[in-house]
């Protein structure tokens, strides 16, 4: 025969958890999790009332769905409801009036002055009957106190105590997906939560004030502590992007990415970049077409799309010498600051070719100057700018603020030069863009930090003198979301470990 849970079972279970007379408790519950309860939801409520007594207070979220216990509770005699468009609660007992008062006058849904904030301040408890941390609304209070970058402002309409329709703008409003479940083991380890079985339900009792402290410590260490790690959870990817963006406010450099390496569709590219906290693009190709092959309407479309989403163009990477002027025009149109020169390969006589390259540079620089756009040479194997000495020679001979370097550490490593240990530091001073590209000396590309290009040392030393240029992600191995995210995550890991 099926066991029937009685009021005494619940009372003794709650007491075992440590709940006692005079306590304030916020209850999240699932009636069915208990199994069959003699007397139904009323029995659970009576057990709660018996344990906390007349001096205690019981609070439950005001039900939006059919959470049976909370639904029955909300319609009980003496229960007071808070007025709120999204996070209303109902309460019964000594502090019920105080807890529910002025909820809609507070600037946030779950922060200071709300029933949740008051529960924390009064040293109350959170009781989870057969539900997990996913239902623990007071975790949003911790997010609110930590002022996490992914919280946002939202507008709601509701009817106030006098029956008047009002509009409220809530600050630091909690977002979509969370990994609150991941906090459970931490609460147990920190001994701020107890678990007991009542009927079939696993019931958790958490000290709200201690919980907030544990959460704030966790979030200080890692603002993404409440987010999931699933790379295909679009919600958490976006929220992580916001954390990364906020992290960058302390930096002088700007992170960027080369468009063709991220995605061929511009809309998808922006989504991927947002997830990495990157808002700046180096344009080379879009829709698998070199930027110079786009028709004016396509270029107009891109400019509007970028502006609408808060993106800007750092510069253009030019593929062909004959298209350099067109690249300068496009850079100007997008408000870009630089154009990377196409490779100037040498065939036989390197000195003669260098001379030719220099001559073409002088005339190009005149055009670039008029448009106030900087030209960049990139060190590349088998070109007139293969080694650091070549780059220094060309930069020195031209000696113009309109010619700088796109520093490619991987290519220096491939040329047998340690980019940090051997390339003269004065060359770093001429860098406008540093590609976050790594490779083995053998030429095999690696994700940043895994090769011989001394990426971490370079990033660190450039941050020491407040490098004002771009750290540009331009994966060499392949293009597309997966490899790009892999390289960007490696870049972020380097930043977070220095
Ligand atoms: Zn998620």
Concise summary:
The chain is built from 19 helices and 23 strands.
Report on this model:
The protein is α/β, with parallel strands linked by helices. It folds into two domains: 4-221, no CATH class; 251-496, TIM Barrel, CATH 3.20.20. Helix content is 39%, strand content 20%. The chain contains 19 helices and 23 strands. Strand 21 and strand 22 (445-446) form a beta hairpin. The longest helix is centred in the last third of the chain and has 22 residues, at 350-371. The relative contact order is 0.07. Residues 177, 227-228, 230, 233, 235-236 line the site of zinc ion.
Distance between the termini: 63 Å
| Strands in their spatial order, largest beta sheet | 12-13-16-17-18-19-20-23
Per DSSP, the total helix count is: 19
Strand content: 15-25%
Descriptors:
seven-stranded mixed beta sheet, 2 domains, single chain, binds zinc ion, TIM Barrel, alpha/beta, 19 helices
Strands, helices and their partners?
Elements: E1 4-5, H1 7-17, E2 24-29, E3 36-37, H2 41-52, E4 57-61, H3 68-74, E5 80-81, E6 89-93, H4 96-100, H5 115-121, E7 125-129, H6 138-146, E8 152-159, E9 165-173, H7 184-189, E10 193-198, E11 201-207, H8 208-221, H9 234-248, E12 254-258, H10 259-262, H11 266-275, E13 280-283, E14 285-286, E15 289-290, H12 296-308, E16 312-317, H13 324-334, E17 338-340, H14 350-371, E18 374-378, H15 388-398, E19 403-407, H16 409-414, H17 425-428, E20 431-435, E21 438-439, E22 445-446, H18 455-464, E23 470-473, H19 481-496
Helix pairs in contact: 1-2, 2-3, 6-8, 9-11, 13-14
Zinc ion is lined by residues 177, 227-228, 230, 233, 235-236.
